[in-house]
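Sharing a chain and its predicted structure for anyone who wants a worked example. Both blocks are below, sequence first, tokens second.
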Amino acid sequence: MSLSLRRFGFFQPGTEPEMKQAALVMAALAALAGGAQAESKPAEPLLRQAAVKALQPILPLAKGEAALDMLVEVNRDSADGAWVLGSVTQPLPVMTTIAAMDHVPVSRLFLARRDAQGWTLELEGNPGFAAMLTLAPADWLSADERRAWRSQLAQPGQPFAPNSTGLGLPWRQGAAWRMTGGPHGYSGESQPYDSIDFAGGDGRVLAPQAGVIYKSCVRGGSGLVKLVHDNGFSSTYYHMINLNTLADGTRVNPGAYLGTIGNGLPCGGSTTGPHVHFSLLYQGRAEPVNGKLFGGWQFFAGSRAYQGYALRNGTRVNVGGLLNNYGGGAPAGASGVATPAQGEGKVNLRSAPSLSAGVTGTVNRGESVALQCHVRAEAVDGVWGRTDVWNRTRGGDWISDGFLDTGSNGPVVPLCASASRPW
């Protein structure tokens, strides 16, 4: 959500409260007018019960927030009715007061199988989702879907998402839009801060990377749109209007049209002006955007929701500033070759970027170490000289750049997000 309608050109000095109230009311009326146009079919009672039970543990409602009946939809079922790919969403009241802002519904996709005992259901991001994916009929999910979903499964030894997401920004490459709201959660201050708001340009929201598309809560040309990418990340989009008409499970290419920025509230919430609410997930779970790279920019959260900034080659852009989309690039991070001191055969991995931190493991001379980000910390006299660069491995450990051959005297991976505020 964005914090100020002035960024969209809606306000004249002295009229902000009245205009903000009017924008919220118009958004509410638009949402209600389109409320009957749902595209997915409702779930049967027992399936609905299983889906609601699965979503409830991840629904910490904000103080004073009313809980509406959950929406459970069948996006696709198998010919024999034994398998369902669906979505479960917690709708929100349509909020038209100035104080009640910055809320979007929580929604997850699921796989479900019916047998004699009833429904077995697993949400994306749950460990059981992998087993469901393996058991699903071979001709029911496409090869594109299976590849995308397999990338979402937790990988041993890789507990942290890489900062290099491989995603561009959700508009035309080479064009500049405004960051109208810095990192924030689904209800503003809720954590993690997995979302950013954007608006500007021609208003056309485009796929920031290839992925498989799914939609939930489709009403009146608006809805919740999700792209499941091939590298463990998923991205979601809210408030758009004039959505594309692609069927669920269709693979889209980078730059494919998703919708247009708007005030859409198909599952409730609030909006203060036309924009897209962009959110990030990793392996099916909400992922902090702090430290992540999109479109050639690295984003950092502020001390409060909607603050923060983006950084590229020393150029800092604060909330309200323009960001050029440089594209996604390759999703993979860099690596280095372990190079111990003379006479040593191993390099220690540590729990923090310091030689006094505990040893969490070792890597042998010549072994490749996958890296995700770096910090400047304790200076170390390494085999290449003195350096204060420490690299965080894809497994979450730390290794001094002084004992890695990365082909460079400087950092080869992005700056790590702040360890003191992980969102």
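Comments welcome. Confidence is low (pLDDT under 50) at residues 1-38, 419-423.
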